[in-house]
């Protein structure tokens, strides 16, 4: 059975078990097939954040910085939604297809619901 840890706001979340329950956390995940594309996307977002640092360092107009913050935030939200969709299609679907996956399925659904709630709070 997979347990769900709800991270507090002052600590980093712990790594959940792999999508396949008892498999190690380094196993194939829903995003594995698109790993390079995701890394490329994250590097682009990292560049946006570095751009924000540069803008502040160069005393750029406040509204221009806020516009860039908004773009960076939307890029991260889009990435998160993509990852969530892959989790639902791969990990939750695998738990639903498992013969004895009732408890695991419930845990995966609760895990996804908690992730959605965290995304909505931001």
From TrEMBL:
<feature type="compositionally biased region" description="Low complexity">
    <location>
        <begin position="1"/>
        <end position="18"/>
    </location>
</feature>
<dbReference type="InterPro" id="IPR038390">
    <property type="entry name" value="Metal_Tscrpt_repr_sf"/>
</dbReference>
<feature type="region of interest" description="Disordered">
    <location>
        <begin position="1"/>
        <end position="35"/>
    </location>
</feature>
<dbReference type="InterPro" id="IPR003735">
    <property type="entry name" value="Metal_Tscrpt_repr"/>
</dbReference>
<protein>
    <recommendedName>
        <fullName>DNA-binding FrmR family transcriptional regulator</fullName>
    </recommendedName>
</protein>
<dbReference type="Pfam" id="PF02583">
    <property type="entry name" value="Trns_repr_metal"/>
</dbReference>
<keyword id="KW-0186">Copper</keyword>
<comment type="similarity">
    <text>Belongs to the CsoR family.</text>
</comment>
